[in-house]
User: Which sequence fits this backbone?
């Protein structure tokens, strides 16, 4: 495979790492991964709420009237309102801005502190949204939710990658994706019930966002900081203590030495954001910070997650039926996350990217062809066609659930060396949220103007994404996080860019430390 090779040959101290899975480690993973539930709950709840009649009547009466009028030739445009989509996308624009502040907090005060700050902000946003009486309050609440997601998405993937043993890092990091998917599914189930509670059901849906935020805050109070972060802060004895507890052994010298050397390199870097643009960090910048986060959103999956109830209502299903269909499709997301979680460290990152991409392309093409033939002519969508669309969307979502969904967070979090890890993750989150907001803001308008063509557009983008992965991403499974830099020197393309500068610098640090 172009760009792929075994990572087992390039590790240095990896075979000397010792440890086992401890209850202390499991508890830290479960608490830390709760950050994904905030992101997931919002993804699920916002799409359902924007399809509820009570919510639309109170804040978006024009959309409500258009929804219930027969529009015939403009069936695709029933929910085309930039103000309505701003309700969804404002959160992600806020998260985009907050991630840079989160980077400083994560570096200076640790991953745990960013998790705590994010949970507080998300709690306040949920409370304000539940009590909103005008659009301004809705937007303010969404901005606070966005700050919470910016901090959480910055810290949680780093936290999970750093505390995980190399051979289990993929599985552990994907707890973030699993809790995200579970958050989406729980939000769908809540929307399904609250839609019946007139006229305040939507308030309950939005207000329950405070529950995962409260759980994450309370759990975060007992969360250990990562050894990597403690070493970065100069707390070496505490770092050793935590490392021994999460590994369940006192034989941590090899792993601790790697952490020390990575920290020495990090302290030598005075401007981590500027350092990201150096030639030796070009692969991480292009693949991890820019390419994968943007492509994850351009796959079209979050458009379907945001607007699944809206899409199904647009296709002629009633409000309850639309929410029910959304629950079915998002259940597939949880299944996909579980499959990926248990197989990613065996089959590898590239396998899931490539297989999932192929399945997503086929699904989008079938959706586009079906809509071109059957929908948008002022007639109800035939039941057989609606069933086919639901099946294709489920196949698309389950493929995303084991490929671009979890890999889009796992791979960037493990590519960056410690000296640029927090800065790199900031750009990952910023880029991801920028494209999330962009897609959220313009998807409904794109569906209105491009009609079924929007699904062919997504299929074409996924082709480009898959080629990007096949040619440029090496396999990172079971590779120690502080030794991943060695992969670039053996990659067919990146070795021309980075040369052997990283290896030379690493060996010089080893000599200096002797």
Assistant:
């Amino acid at each position: 495979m172009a760009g792929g090779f075994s990572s087992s040959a390039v590790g240095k101290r990896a075979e000397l790492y010792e440890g086992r899975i401890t209850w202390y480690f499991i508890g830290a993973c479960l608490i830390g991964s709760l950050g994904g539930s905030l992101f997931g709950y919002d993804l699920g709840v916002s799409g359902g709420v924007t399809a509820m009649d009570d919510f639309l009547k109170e804040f978006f009466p024009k959309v409500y009237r258009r929804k219930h009028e027969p529009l015939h030739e403009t069936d695709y445009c029933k929910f085309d309102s930039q103000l309505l989509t701003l309700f969804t996308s404002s959160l992600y624009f806020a998260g985009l801005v907050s991630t840079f502040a989160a980077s400083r907090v994560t570096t200076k005060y640790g991953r745990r502190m960013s998790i705590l700050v994010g949970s507080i902000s998300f709690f306040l946003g949920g409370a304000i949204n539940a009590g909103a009486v005008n659009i301004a309050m809705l937007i303010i609440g969404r901005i606070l939710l966005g700050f919470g997601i910016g901090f959480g998405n910055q810290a949680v993937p780093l936290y999970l990658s750093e505390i995980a043993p190399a051979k289990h890092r993929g599985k552990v990091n994907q707890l973030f994706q699993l809790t995200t998917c579970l958050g989406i599914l729980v939000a769908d189930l809540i929307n399904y019930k609250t839609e019946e509670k007139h006229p305040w059901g939507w308030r309950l849906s939005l207000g329950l966002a405070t529950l995962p935020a409260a759980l994450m805050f309370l759990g975060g109070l007992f969360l250990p900081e990562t050894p990597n972060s403690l070493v970065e802060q100069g707390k070496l004895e505490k770092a050793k203590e935590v490392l021994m507890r999460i590994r369940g052994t006192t034989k941590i010298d090899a792993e601790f030495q790697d952490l020390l050397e990575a920290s020495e390199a990090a302290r030598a870097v005075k401007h981590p954001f500027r350092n990201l643009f150096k030639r030796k960090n070009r692969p991480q910048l292009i693949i991890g910070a820019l390419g994968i986060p943007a492509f994850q959103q351009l796959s079209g999956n979050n458009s379907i997650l945001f607007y699944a109830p809206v899409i199904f209502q647009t296709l002629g299903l009633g409000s309850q039926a639309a929410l029910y269909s959304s629950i079915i499709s998002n259940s597939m997301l949880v299944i996909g996350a579980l499959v990926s979680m248990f197989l990613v460290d065996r089959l590898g990152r590239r396998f899931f990217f490539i297989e999932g991409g192929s399945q997503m392309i086929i699904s989008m093409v079938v959706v586009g062809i079906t809509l071109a033939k059957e929908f948008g002519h002022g007639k109800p969508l035939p039941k057989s066609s609606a069933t086919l669309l639901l099946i294709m969307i489920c196949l698309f979502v389950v493929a995303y659930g084991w490929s671009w969904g979890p890999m889009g967070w796992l791979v960037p979090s493990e590519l960056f060396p410690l000296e640029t890890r927090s800065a790199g993750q900031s750009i990952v989150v910023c880029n991801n949220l920028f494209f999330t907001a962009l897609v959220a803001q313009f998807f409904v308008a794109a569906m209105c103007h491009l009609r079924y063509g929007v699904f062919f557009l997504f299929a074409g983008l996924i082709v480009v994404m898959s080629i990007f992965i096949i040619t440029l991403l090496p396999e990172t499974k079971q590779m120690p996080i502080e030794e991943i830099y060695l992969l670039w020197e053996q990659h067919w393309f990146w070795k021309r860019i980075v040369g052997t500068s990283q290896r030379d610098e690493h060996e010089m640090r080893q000599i200096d430390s002797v």
